[in-house]
């Protein structure tokens, strides 16, 4: 059983939707990866630029060691619906289904990898280091003290900023 989440995309007809499920403790990642690499049409979960397919699988795809997995299916015909996707995910993915919500996304997102992948490693540093360059910031010592006192409010703001930047980069790359 999966906990299927359905998204309606504004520029697509209502009967063409995006379906998402989240799984943890995945036991058959090697099998799923092989199906994708072999081009098995029953396992088409994403559109990937053919010129960078190897890089895309390496950076974003499933690996034999994957234990947590977002499964995404984009409907291209009305015959691909919630029931057929639910059946396929449940029959193909050996793992524990989880609710697809904000806390799950936060739990399974490696912010360091996201920053590195999208070359956003300086995100958040400009505000912290501004005081050392004559700006209004309070510097690294202040930031370290704030974190030591359990104030991680900056993490939420940084995550939101990172999210906006990544979505913007995806939109720009998709438009070129």
Key attributes of the depicted protein:
alpha+beta, four-stranded antiparallel β-sheet
Give a structural overview.
The protein has helices spanning 29-37, 53-60, 82-92, 102-108, 111-117, 125-129, 139-148, 153-175; strands at residues 5-7, 18-24, 69-74, 96-98. The protein has 176 residues and is of the alpha+beta class. Strands 1, 2, 3 and 4 form a 4-stranded antiparallel β-sheet that branches. The chain contains 8 helices and 4 strands. The two termini are 39 Å apart. The longest helix has 23 residues, at 153-175.
Short account of what is shown:
By secondary structure, the protein is of the alpha+beta class.
Number of strands: 4
Residues in helix, %: 40-55%
Catalogue the unreliable spans: 47-52, 126-138
**Quick check: average pLDDT?**
76
Largest sheet: 4 strands, antiparallel
Inertia-based shape: globular
- The helix tally amounts to 8
Strand content: 5-15%
End-to-end gap:
39 Å
* Rg result: 20 Å
H/E series, N to C? EEHHEHEHHHHH
User: What class would the helix/strand composition place it in?
Assistant: alpha+beta
